[in-house]
C-alpha cells in the first residue's frame, strides 16, 4: 500500500505530476471526436513577457473551465501561443544591440536586425509558456501558435488583401498620433491623455504687416511653433465679432504671408479669442477643416519625424528656428513674435496633453500616408451580435456590454500601419515609376496597373492588434478546415477589461467578417489585481508581485484556489491580500490559509486511507451503499455532498466562481473534516457500522478529489493516485475521469435540518466549555431543556453524537429548572446548562463577566453620545447612523446574556 507522506509537499508533487502530464500528452486535443467541443483561445501573452498576476489569474480561470468541461465529457482544446508584440519586442532588441554592440538598428539594416529579433525569440520566447506550465495550465502544448508563424503570415495577407479588394482597407493622408521618440504612429488607444498646466498664446495676425496698428485677428494657440504651417485663420460662422472679416485676408507674422479668414462650424466661439490658426499638416481638426474647404490648396509640412522644424517648401522660416526641436522652436518663435509686437497675451491654461503610453513622449500630430481599416461597415454586425437582452455574444459581468457597444458605435477608422521593422510587413508593393499600389498575398512580379517589374514593398508593418484580431480563427488553422470546423467558434474568452476595445471588439468584427460567426460566445472580464494599497502593479515601479514567487512559497494549488475564488462577477479591482515581511518578501494570509486548506484535505485523506482495510478494494459507487443501514450522520454528509455537486453545476453555469469556491471550501473543511470525520471515528469502532462508514469515507474522498481537481489539479492528482491503489482499477489521470454527478436520492432536507440542530447544540456546548475554561480532560454533565416535541425527539435519538463530540453526559428535560452555579446558553428553543460546581473558579468567572459587562456599558454610552449629537445625526450617512444603532442593540443583547450568566452563577 502506498501511503501519503505526513505533510503535503507542493513543490515535489507539482514537479512530479507536471512531468507526467506533459510526457503523456494529457492536454492534447483531438479533432475526430463525436463529443461536443469546448474550446478557449488564450489571450496571447507578449513573447517578451513574464508571467504577471493578471496572466496567472486569467489562466487559472481558463484552466479550471477547460478541466471542468473535459471531465464533463467535452472534447476540449485550450489553444495557446504568444504574440510578437511589435513595438515592445523591437524596442527590447534595439536596447540589447545598443548596449552590447553600441549600434543602432539602422547600422545593421532591416534584414539583419530582423534576424536578431528572431534569434532573441528563439532563445527567450518560450519563457512565459514554461511559467504557465508551473501554474498547471492544461494547454495543448503541441499546437502553440506564434503570431509571426508562416501560417499566420499567410492568413494575415489573405485578410489584408480581401479587405483591400472590398475597399475596407485604404491608404489615406491623415493626421496620425506620432511619437517623435519611437518614430512610429500610434492608435488612439496607445495614447494617454493627461491634464497639465499649459499656456495659451494670443497672437495677432494683422491685416497689414507694415502697420499693425490697423489691427487684425488675434488667434489663440497652445503650439505657436506650428504657425509656419498655417494656411488660414478660422472662426465660427455664427460669431458676430468676425462676420465682416470672413472672406478677407490677414498676414501670417514672421513669414509675411497672406492667408484667408474662413468660417467653419467646428470652431468653438468660447475658446480663446474665438479665432484659431489652421495648420492642416499638424493638427487633426485643422486637417478636417482643410478637407472641407476645397479653396485651401497648400498643406505645408514644417516639422520632420523627430519633431524638428524644417523648411522643405521654402516658406522662409527664420533660419535660426529651422532644425530646432519643437519646444526650443516654440521659445524662439515666441521671442520673435514678441519683438514684432505680435504676442498679445499669455494665459494660464489647463490642457489635455497627449503622451505615448509606452515612453511618455508628448505626441506630435503628423500628416502622413497610412493604411486604414474602414470601420463603419465592420462595426455594424459586431454591434448587432452583442445588443439586447439575449445577445449572441454575452459579457460576464454584463456591465461590460455597454462599454463594448459604446466604443463600436462611435468608432473611427482604424490606422493599421506602423513604422516599425518587427511585425507583418504590409503586403502592398509600389512600382518605382508611378507608385501604383499592388496588394497581393504572394510577392507580385509586376505592377497591377502599369505592369512595371520594379516593385518595392511598403516598408511599414501592421499594428500588432491587426494580427491579434484574427487570433481565435487563425490559431485554429483557418482557412484550413480541420481544427477550425471542430473548435470554432470558441466557447469562452477570459480577459481583462483594459483590452475590450483594443482586442475583444476587433476579434469580433474580424471573426464575423471572415468566418460569418462570432469568435466566442461568452466573454468573461476578470478584475485587475492591484497592490495591497490599491495601486496598479508595475514592474518598472518595482511594486509588482511575482506570481511564481507566490507559487514557490504557497504551492500552485493554493494560489489557484485564490485566483479562482476572486471570480469574475464581483468587483472591478482586487487588492493583493498580503504585505512584505521583514526581509522584504511578499506574504499573504489568504494564500497561507489556502495552503492550510490543501493540508487539511491531505490529512483527511490520510485518515481515510489509514482506516480502510488493507487488502480490500473499494468500489466507488454511492448507489451500491445499503441505505437502510445509514446513520443520521451518514445521511447528512451524503446530503451535503450531493447539495455541493448540485451547487457546483449551477455556479459553473453562472460563472459564479467565488460562491463555488466558498462552497467547496466549507464542505471540505467544515462538513467533512470537522464534523463527519470526527463522528466517523466513533462509527469505525462500532462493528455494525464499520464497513458502511469505510465505504462512505472512501466515496466522499473519491468524489471531492474529482470535484476539486479543476481548481487544485496537483494535490488532487497525488491523492487520486493513492486512492486508486484501493480501487480495482488501472491508473488513468484524474483529468480523464468523469466529473461526479449528483445522486439526487441523497437529498434530504429534513435530515439536514435535524443534523444542523445537533451541530448547533454541540458547538454551543463546546463554546461554553471553552469560555468557562473547563479542561477537555474533564467529562462534564450537560442539561438540555426544551418543550419542543420535535427537538426533544431528535435529542433523544442523537444524544450520543453530542456526548461524544463534547465529552459529556447529557440529560434532556422538558420544564426549565435553573441550577446554580452553572453556565448556559440558548439554541433555538433549547436551553443548555452546564453545572460547574467544582470545575471552575466561580469568583474568577464572575469578575471576568462583570469586567466584560462594564466594557460593554462604556461602549454603549459612547455610541449613544454619537446618536444624541445633532452634528452626527444631521451630517453622517444613513448607513453610518444605522450601523451605530445596530451596534447599540447588539451590545444591549450581550449585556442581557451576561446578566443571565451572572444570574446562573450566584
Ligand atoms: Zn514613444
Ligand atoms: Zn505601376
Protein model, in words:
This protein is an alpha/beta fold. Among the domains are: 39-156 and 473-580, HUPs (Rossmann fold, 3-Layer(aba) Sandwich), CATH 3.40.50.620; 184-364, Isoleucyl-tRNA Synthetase, domain 2, CATH 3.90.740.10; 841-906, Helix Hairpins, CATH 1.10.287. The chain is 43% helix and 18% strand. The protein is built from 27 helices and 31 strands. The strands form eleven sheets. A four-stranded antiparallel sheet has the order 6-5-14-16. α24 links the parallel β28 and β29 (808-813). The radius of gyration is 37 Å and the shape is elongated. The structure holds zinc ion (ZN) (2 copies). One zinc ion (ZN) binds at residues 431, 433-434, 436, 447, 449-450, 452.
Number of helices in the DSSP assignment: 27
Give Rg in angstroms. 37 Å
Helix content: 40-55%
Which kinds of small molecule does this entry bind, naming each only once? zinc ion
Question: Which homologous superfamily in CATH is the superfamily of the domain at 39-156 and 473-580?
Answer: HUPs
CATH architecture verdict of the domain at 39-156 and 473-580: 3-Layer(aba) Sandwich
CATH-defined topology of the domain at 39-156 and 473-580: Rossmann fold
Amino acid at each position: 500500500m502506498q501511503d501519503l507522506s505526513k505533510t503535503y509537499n507542493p513543490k515535489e508533487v507539482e514537479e512530479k505530476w507536471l512531468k507526467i502530464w506533459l510526457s503523456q500528452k494529457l492536454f492534447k486535443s483531438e479533432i475526430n471526436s463525436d463529443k461536443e467541443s469546448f474550446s478557449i483561445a488564450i489571450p496571447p501573452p507578449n513573447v517578451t513577457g513574464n508571467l504577471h498576476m493578471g496572466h496567472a489569474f486569467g489562466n487559472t480561470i481558463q484552466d479550471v473551465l477547460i478541466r471542468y468541461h473535459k471531465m464533463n465529457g467535452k472534447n476540449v482544446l485550450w489553444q495557446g501561443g504568444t504574440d510578437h508584440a511589435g513595438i515592445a519586442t523591437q524596442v527590447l532588441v534595439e536596447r540589447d544591440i545598443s548596449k552590447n554592440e553600441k549600434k543602432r538598428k539602422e547600422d545593421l539594416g532591416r534584414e539583419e536586425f530582423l534576424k536578431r529579433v528572431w534569434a532573441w525569440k528563439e532563445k527567450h520566447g518560450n519563457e512565459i509558456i514554461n511559467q504557465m506550465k508551473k501554474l498547471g495550465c492544461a494547454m495543448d502544448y503541441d499546437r502553440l501558435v506564434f503570431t509571426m508563424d508562416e501560417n499566420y503570415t499567410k492568413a494575415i495577407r489573405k485578410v489584408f488583401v480581401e479587405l483591400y479588394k472590398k475597399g475596407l482597407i485604404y491608404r489615406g493622408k491623415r493626421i496620425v498620433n506620432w511619437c517623435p521618440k519611437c518614430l512610429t504612429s500610434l492608435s488612439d488607444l496607445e495614447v494617454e491623455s493627461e491634464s497639465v498646466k499649459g499656456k495659451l498664446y494670443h497672437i495677432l495676425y494683422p491685416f497689414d504687416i507694415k502697420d499693425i496698428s490697423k489691427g487684425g485677428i488675434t488667434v489663440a494657440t497652445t503650439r505657436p511653433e506650428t504657425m509656419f504651417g498655417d494656411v488660414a485663420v478660422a472662426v465660427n460662422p455664427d460669431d458676430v465679432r468676425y462676420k465682416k472679416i470672413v472672406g478677407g485676408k490677414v498676414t501670417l507674422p514672421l513669414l509675411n504671408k497672406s492667408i484667408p479668414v474662413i468660417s467653419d462650424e467646428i470652431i468653438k466661439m468660447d475658446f480663446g479669442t474665438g479665432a484659431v490658426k489652421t495648420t492642416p499638416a499638424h493638427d487633426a481638426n485643422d486637417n478636417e477643416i482643410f478637407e472641407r474647404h476645397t479653396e485651401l490648396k497648400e498643406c505645408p509640412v514644417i516639422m520632420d519625424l523627430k519633431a524638428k522644424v524644417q523648411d522643405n517648401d521654402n516658406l522662409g522660416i527664420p533660419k535660426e528656428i529651422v532644425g530646432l526641436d519643437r519646444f526650443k522652436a516654440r521659445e524662439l518663435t515666441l521671442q520673435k513674435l514678441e519683438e514684432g509686437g505680435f504676442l498679445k497675451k499669455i494665459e494660464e491654461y489647463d490642457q489635455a496633453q497627449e503622451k505615448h503610453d509606452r515612453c511618455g513622449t508628448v505626441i506630435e500630430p503628423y500628416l502622413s500616408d497610412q493604411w486604414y481599416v474602414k470601420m463603419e461597415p465592420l462595426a455594424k454586425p459586431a454591434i448587432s451580435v452583442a445588443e439586447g437582452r439575449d445577445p449572441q455574444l454575452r459579457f460576464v459581468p454584463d456591465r461590460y456590454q455597454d462599454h463594448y457597444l459604446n466604443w463600436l458605435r462611435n468608432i473611427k477608422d482604424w490606422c493599421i500601419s506602423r513604422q516599425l521593422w518587427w511585425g507583418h510587413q504590409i503586403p502592398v508593393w509600389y512600382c518605382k515609376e508611378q507608385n501604383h499600389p499592388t496588394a497581393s498575398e504572394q510577392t507580385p512580379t509586376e505592377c497591377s496597373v502599369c505592369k512595371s517589374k520594379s516593385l518595392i514593398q511598403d516598408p511599414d508593418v501592421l499594428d500588432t492588434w491587426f494580427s491579434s484580431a484574427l487570433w481565435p480563427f487563425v490559431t485554429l488553422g483557418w482557412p484550413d478546415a480541420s481544427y477550425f470546423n471542430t473548435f470554432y467558434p470558441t466557447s469562452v474568452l477570459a480577459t481583462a477589461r483594459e483590452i475590450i476595445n483594443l482586442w475583444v471588439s476587433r476579434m469580433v468584427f474580424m471573426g464575423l467578417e471572415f468566418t460569418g460567426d462570432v469568435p466566442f460566445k461568452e466573454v468573461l472580464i476578470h478584475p485587475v489585481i492591484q497592490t495591497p494599497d490599491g495601486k496598479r502593479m508595475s514592474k518598472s515601479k518595482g511594486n509588482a508581485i511575482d506570481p511564481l514567487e507566490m507559487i514557490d512559497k504557497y504551492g500552485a494549488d493554493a494560489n489557484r484556489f485564490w485566483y479562482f475564488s476572486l471570480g469574475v462577477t464581483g468587483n472591478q479591482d482586487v487588492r493583493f491580500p498580503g504585505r512584505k515581511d521583514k526581509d522584504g518578501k511578499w506574504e499573504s494570509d489568504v494564500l497561507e490559509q489556502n495552503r492550510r486548506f490543501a493540508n487539511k484535505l491531505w490529512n483527511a485523506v490520510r485518515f481515510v486511507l489509514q482506516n480502510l482495510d488493507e487488502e480490500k478494494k473499494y468500489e466507488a459507487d454511492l448507489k451500491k451503499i445499503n441505505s437502510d443501514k445509514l446513520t443520521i450522520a451518514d445521511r447528512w454528509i451524503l446530503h451535503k455532498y450531493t447539495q455541493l455537486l448540485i451547487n457546483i453545476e449551477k455556479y459553473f453555469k453562472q460563472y459564479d466562481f467565488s460562491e463555488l469556491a466558498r462552497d467547496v471550501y466549507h464542505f471540505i473543511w467544515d462538513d467533512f473534516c470537522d464534523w463527519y470525520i470526527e463522528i466517523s471515528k466513533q462509527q469505525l469502532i462500532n462493528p455494525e457500522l464499520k464497513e458502511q462508514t469505510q465505504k462512505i469515507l472512501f466515496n466522499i474522498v473519491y468524489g471531492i478529489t474529482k470535484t476539486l481537481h479543476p481548481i487544485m489539479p496537483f494535490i488532487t492528482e497525488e491523492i487520486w493516485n493513492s486512492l486508486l491503489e484501493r480501487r480495482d482499477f488501472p491508473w488513468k489521470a484524474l483529468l480523464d475521469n468523469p466529473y461526479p454527478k449528483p445522486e439526487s436520492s441523497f437529498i434530504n432536507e429534513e435530515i439536514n435540518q435535524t443534523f444542523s440542530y445537533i451541530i448547533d447544540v454541540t458547538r454551543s456546548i463546546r463554546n461554553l466549555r471553552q469560555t468557562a475554561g473547563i479542561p477537555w480532560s474533564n467529562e462534564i454533565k450537560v442539561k438540555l431543556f426544551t418543550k419542543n416535541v420535535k427537538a426533544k425527539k431528535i435529542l433523544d435519538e442523537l444524544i450520543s453524537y453530542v456526548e461524544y463530540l463534547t465529552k459529556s453526559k447529557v440529560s434532556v428535560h422538558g420544564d426549565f429548572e435553573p441550577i446554580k452555579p452553572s453556565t448556559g446558553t440558548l439554541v433555538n428553543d433549547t436551553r443548555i446548562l452546564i453545572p460547574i460546581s467544582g470545575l471552575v473558579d466561580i469568583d474568577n468567572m464572575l469578575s471576568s463577566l462583570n469586567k466584560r459587562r462594564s466594557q460593554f456599558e462604556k461602549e454603549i454610552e459612547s455610541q449613544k453620545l454619537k446618536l444624541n449629537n445633532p452634528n452626527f445625526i444631521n451630517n453622517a450617512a444613513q448607513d453610518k447612523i444605522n450601523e451605530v444603532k445596530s451596534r447599540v442593540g447588539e451590545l444591549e443583547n450581550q449585556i442581557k446574556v451576561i446578566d443571565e450568566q451572572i444570574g446562573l452563577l450566584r
